[in-house]
Amino acid sequence: MKHSWLNLGIASLLITAIAACGLVRSVGRKPQGEILAGYDTLHNYKNGSFQNTGQRLDSAVDRQRWLFLKSRPGTKRPSAAVPFIKTDLKTLKASTPTIVWFGHSSILIKTEQGNILIDPVFSNHAGPVPGFVTAFKGTKEYKAEDMPPIDVLVISHDHYDHLDYRTLKKLKSRIKMAVVPVGIGADLIYWGFDPKKIIELNWTQDVTLPGGLHITATPAQHKSNRTFGSTNKTLWASYIIQSGPYKIFYSGDGGYGPHFKQIGNKYGPFDLALLECGQFSPNWPWTHLVFGETAKAAIDLQANLLQPVHWGKFVEADHPWNEAIKKLIPTAEKLGVPLNIPRIGEPYALGDEPKTDVWWDFY
């Protein structure tokens, strides 16, 4: 195990070196030239990088420098296929916003105002080349070809488990508009997207699309990079998606902080909060929610219902694959936060009874 992680680290360095030469297209392209000059006026851009608004609280954390060399638990991947439901997404009706989760943070929301696709990763891996961070069995049943026409693609940040070149290459012709944080438009343009179909938002900026969907970018406490040498050159964000009277919050990735309560006070309450839950490490306590913090964030947001995401598809941390959900449930019950935990591909329409079957209780 130690040798395999060492080899993975060496391979990552080689890919980074190759990417610097522009030979790996999936790495994308950082913002360049005149675009960068405009960033200096942004409140959250300083000294050549985007900044979080909160004070870092993990500077005194005793980091486990050699954690990547330690043996991981055998339960980090499920022993059997993750249960899924195969839904015909093209014919699926949605009189109220209907959410379909594909594992990790890939989500389709069908509404009467249009179809929203969030952070799609259908290439079955989360890395610059195939073979890196491979998907669990049972999570590979949905492909780009299964998606309906996409009125708006929403990207939260540029990490490979949220911004996937191979998926977007297949979907590009069926995406009417893309809403992304500041800087990520450079990646999409490099991959062949029409610049006129890309809307970049900074925190608190919003846009109303032709069909009536209203999207607001809100703060998140995270970071960005697609190579080791490009940290925080593009922004990261959470989002508020409003379809008629319904409001949905999507966290993207990010740690706990006062921004959740600020968002709740300004924009809440929310009919549904899609909040990250899982892939946590003691080495990054500031950029991901600790297990119990997901329910706390839902309270701060004034969410009527919480659906955990960012779990169930990839191994990105050293805990059992379902530990996050097992720890979330009692915390949510204690705080009085209703949960919706659908299977992969199982539609949930706002207003219906939440999905609560325990389909994930195996190793």
From TrEMBL:
Keyword Transmembrane attached: yes
Domain Metallo-beta-lactamase, first and last residues per copy: 115-311
UniProt keyword annotations, A-Z: Membrane, Transmembrane, Transmembrane helix
UniProt GO cellular component terms: cytoplasm
Claim: Secreted is one of the keywords in the record: no
Residue intervals passing through the bilayer: 6-24
Pfam family, one: Lactamase_B_2
Matches recorded under SUPFAM superfamilies: Metallo-hydrolase/oxidoreductase
Record-given protein name: L-ascorbate metabolism protein UlaG (Beta-lactamase superfamily)
Protein source organism: Mucilaginibacter auburnensis
